[in-house]
Amino acid sequence: MNSAELTRLDGGMLEGGGQLLRIAIALAALLSKPVAIDNIRAGRQSPGLKNQHAAGLRLVTELCSARLEGCEIKSTSITFHPTVKPQTSKSYTADPKTAGSVALLLQVSLPCLIFSPSTTGEPSKLILRGGTNAPQAPQIDYMQHVLLPFIHKHFGVHATLTIPTRGYYPKGGGEVHISVPPVLGPLPAVTLTQRGAVKAIHGRSYVAGLPKSLAEAMRTGAINALTESGVDTALISIDAVREKPSDAVGSGSGIVLWAETEDGCILAGSALGSKRIDPAQVGRDAVRELAANLAHGGCVDEYMQVR
C-alpha cells in the first residue's frame, strides 16, 4: 500500500466520539485499506485517545499484522496500514490497564473475526480485560444477552461469552472470554422489518462489594415501573445477584433489562448504580431506557444500530 491509497477521515464528525474510530478501523482491517484519522474524539471534553481506545487499536493491529502510528494516550491522529486480512482461529488479548469498557474492545474486534473467512475451522479466542460494567458504554451483559444472541439467531454465528471476573470503575480488572466460531462462507441476508409483540422481559440486577438488598431494590423498582406501564407481571423475570468477592474487582451496581419479541428482536435498557441515586430509581431509569427503545417502533435498539 502506498500513501496515495490512504483514506483520511475527520474523527470530529458527527458526535466526535470513539464510535467513528472503532468502525473505521474495523472496516479498514476487513478491506485491507490504510486509513488516517485526525481530530480523534474532538467532540469529547478530553479529546484524543484514552487507554481503552489505544488497547482496541493495538488489538486490531495484531489481528491483521498492521502498521500503526500515533497510538499514544491523548493522541488525536493515527495512521493504520493493515498488511493482511484479520487472522482468525487464533487467540488474542487486550488490556487497557484501566476500567475502560470491555464491551467496546469487543465491538471493534468482533466484526473483524466474523467477516474474515476461517482457513482452519478452529474458533478464534479473545481475552479482554478492563471494566465490564462501565459508564458511557454498553454493559458486558448487553453483549452477552442481546448482541450475541441476536447475531446467533439471525446470522447463525454462535459466539460465546463468559465472564470469569467482573471489573468496576475505577479499578477495572475484569476479564471476559469470547469464542468466535469459524465463518466458512457469506453470512445470510436478513430482512427484519416487523418487531412483533413483546413476549418476555428478562433482567439482571447486580451488586459487587455492596449489600444484596441494593440489587433487590433495583429489581423492585424496575418491576414496579414495568407493571405501571402495563406490562403483565407474568412476562417479567429479573434476577437479583450479589457477585462473590472472588468474582469481582472493586465495587459497583447496576441493572440490565432486555425485551424479547415474537419476531426475534431483542431490545434493551440499562442503568448503573450510584451513591447519589436511590436504587429503586436506578431500576426505573433502566425501564425508561428500555421503554424509549421500544417506543420508536424499530427492530433494534440504540446500541445495536451502531454495532
What does this structure look like?
- This is RNA 3'-terminal phosphate cyclase.
- Residues 193-294 form the RNA 3'-terminal phosphate cyclase insert domain.
- Helices cover 29% and strands 25% of the residues.
- It has 307 residues and is α/β, with parallel strands linked by helices.
- It has three domains: 1-86, Translation Initiation Factor IF3 (2-Layer Sandwich); 88-184, RNA 3'-terminal phosphate cyclase domain (UDP-n-acetylglucosamine1-carboxyvinyl-transferase, Chain, Alpha-beta prism); 198-306, RNA 3'-terminal phosphate cyclase, insert domain (Dihydrodipicolinate Reductase, domain 2, 2-Layer Sandwich), CATH 3.30.360.
- The strands form three sheets. A five-stranded mixed β-sheet has the order 5-6-8-7-11, covered by helices on one side.
- Helix 5 crosses helix 6.
- The longest helix is centred in the last third of the chain and has 17 residues, at 212-228.
- The two termini are 28 Å apart.
